[in-house]
Amino acid sequence: DIRLVAVCSPDFPRPGWPMGLETLLTLPLLQDAHRRWDQLIRETGRPGARTLLNFDRAALALDAAIGGHGVAIAPSYMVEHDILAGRLAEIWVDPEPPRGQLFVSWSRDHAGQAQVRRIVDWVIGEFAAERPATA
């Protein structure tokens, strides 16, 4: 499952925790090509002027967040190591149930190949997924 979280540098000046979406949207927002901030802004019904700094890659938006330039939003699996290492602080969690999932697929013709098996085993190990019955 993909659970979205908003993150910033631990040193970034921000209101206290817990933070509601309305307060969060007043901060400088770092947006990647997925345009998740635009979607959340539309969902609030208040599409007024916001400070959005756009990046074409999530990694660039997250680097800007680490550098103290604003708040990025990303799936929790992308930021968990930076949070644990103290490079990022989680300041908001999407209260909605996860809306997306990651999937991996491969051709039956390649299912028996050792390199495909290694990749599938890595994905299963990283994301704690159950082993598919047909793998």
What would you say this structure looks like, in words?
This protein is an alpha/beta fold and 135 residues long. It folds into 2 domains: 90 residues, 3-Layer(aba) Sandwich (D-Maltodextrin-Binding Protein, domain 2); 33 residues. The chain has 5 helices and 5 strands, in the order E-H-E-H-E-H-E-H-E-H. The protein has a 5-stranded mixed β-sheet with strand order 3-2-4-1-5, sandwiched between helices. Helix 2 links the parallel strand 2 and strand 3. The model has no long low-confidence stretch (mean pLDDT 83).
- What oligomeric state do these chains adopt? single chain
| Total DSSP E strands | 5
CATH superfamily label of the largest domain: Periplasmic binding protein-like II
Radius of gyration: 18 Å
**How is the CATH topology of the largest domain named?**
D-Maltodextrin-Binding Protein, domain 2
Q: What's the overall geometry? A: elongated
CATH class designation of the largest domain? Alpha Beta
CATH architecture of the largest domain: 3-Layer(aba) Sandwich
Please give the count of helices: 5
N- and C-termini, Cα separation: 20 Å
Helix fraction by DSSP (H/I, runs of at least 4): 25-40%
Given helix and strand content, the structural type is: alpha/beta
Q: What's the structural domain tally?
A: 2
Strand content: 15-25%
In this structure, how is the largest beta sheet organized? 5 strands, mixed
* Unreliable stretches covering 5 or more consecutive residues: none
The succession of helices and strands, N to C, reads EHEHEHEHEH
> Mean pLDDT across all residues, rounded?
83
